[in-house]
Fold Thiamine-monophosphate kinase.
Amino acid sequence: MQLKQIGEFNFICHIQSDTIYNPDTVIQGIGDDCAIYNTSEHVNQLISTDTMVEGIHFSFHYMMPYDVGYRLMSANLSDIAAMGGTPKQVVLSVAAPDYIDTDILDEIYRGIKDQCKKYGVNILGGDTVRIEGPMVWTVTIIGEVPQGCAVLRSGAQISDVVGVTNYLGYAATGLSALMYSLDGYTMTKIGHQRPEPQVFLGQRLRDLGVHSMNDISDGLASELNEIASASSVSIVIEEKAIPLHAETYALAEHLQTNPVDYALYGGEDFQLVFTAPKSLVPQLQDMDGISLIGEVLSGPTVVQMVTPDKTVKTIEAKGYNHFHES
């Protein structure tokens, strides 16, 4: 059935079930002009918004509708993770053509709901409108962090170590494998289609006392430059320390590309990059999914990378940019 046949109101009624996963915080959910929710004591609220446009952020050539919803929520959850926060509530809106099959929308919402359920995030409402053109999804997410404990980009300090979570370049590897219709690359294809935000690692890093943090949505190069700029520091990383998956090395060899470029410029891994005092190194080294890749220095605001042959390269902020002129 097409969206124009069921109508906006009926579709909203159709999808509003199974949207509250933490009822203790909700006074009024979907069904009124505004939602009403309670906040915890002694917390700061976090709020972020993100938009995904069909043909720019996702394509049904490489993703199932369920994956679109899953990935949409991962992107928003990752923003909360980057602050060391706990996600609590979302509102979401979709602009869709009236000829869209409601089965596709149902599957997108199923991906959204599964991610919300996993992290205990309530869906409080949103909007559905008709558009002439590709679908546009917008999510606003609200989270909490203990008062004064949010981890900012601007907190990096001289002599900090630089760390990242899990593998980088994972999603870009999977997308390239899908675009070239390559067999195999099972793990990284899933990494592109259903990336997992590092909510719990973000909270643990906050509790340990890391100084700064950023989520890796636009590529490691871009995120490191954001930290360096916000903190007025210089950052140097070791290329050989950047954690890459075996599938990334295999793809790079197949396509005759540089494997580290997938981590630096690929983006959409939704992992975390952080800086921490050296006193935390033993604890960080004992944590699963943590790699230490560099350090924070004084000097001009710049990010540099030492290659295996000891060449020092300046790493520009060349991750994905919506308004970049090619």
User: Anything to note?
Assistant: The mean pLDDT is 92. The chain has two domains: 3-146, 160-314. The first helix runs from residue 3 to 6. The chain is about 35% helix and 25% strand.
